[in-house]
Amino acid sequence: MEHLPKTAREIVLGLKERFRPEKCEQDTDMTFHLDFSGDTGGLYTVAVKDLECTVNEGHIGESTCTISAKASDYEDIELGRVNPQMAFMMGKIKATNVMALMQFITFFRKLVKPAL
């Protein structure tokens, strides 16, 4: 990645470049709906199937897990300004399926080292 994305939209649209197929099982078939509120957010669908990742704007199909947060909180997590576990425990990021969220996290290389 040439430059570090700054907005939730840029970060999400860059997920395909950070995808790690080696972290998926051959039969992985999961769809994640991302719902980030605020000026830099939006609605997105991230699908992981057949060891490939697709990212689209808008919610497409039925989700395995819906992840929601303020765009600024998601940006803080991805850019290493906030510890992801603390953000989750404080309710800044929500997921309808915590186990799927845990898998989602492993599917992608980190942008930056997480905050402690």
Please explain how this structure is put together.
This protein has 5 helices and 5 strands; from the N terminus they run ααββββααβα. It has a 5-stranded mixed beta sheet. A hairpin with a 4-residue loop joins strand 1 and strand 2. It starts with 7 loop residues before the first helix and ends in a 10-residue tail after the last helix.
What order do the helices and strands come in, and which of them pair?
Blueprint: H1 8-13, H2 15-18, E1 29-37, E2 42-49, E3 52-57, E4 65-70, H3 71-78, H4 84-89, E5 93-95, H5 98-106
Parallel strand pairs: 1-4
Antiparallel strand pairs: 1-2, 2-3, 4-5
Count of separate DSSP helical elements: 5
| H/E series | HHEEEEHHEH
Could you name the CATH topology?
Nonspecific Lipid-transfer Protein, Chain A
Largest sheet: 5 strands, mixed
Number of strands: 5
**Major sheet strand order:** 3-2-1-4-5
User: What's the average pLDDT?
Assistant: 93
**Helical proportion?**
25-40%
CATH homologous superfamily name?
A: SCP2 sterol-binding domain
> Residue ranges: pLDDT <50 for 5 or more in a row?
none
- Please report the distance between the alpha carbons of the first and last residues: 24 Å
Give Rg in angstroms: 13 Å
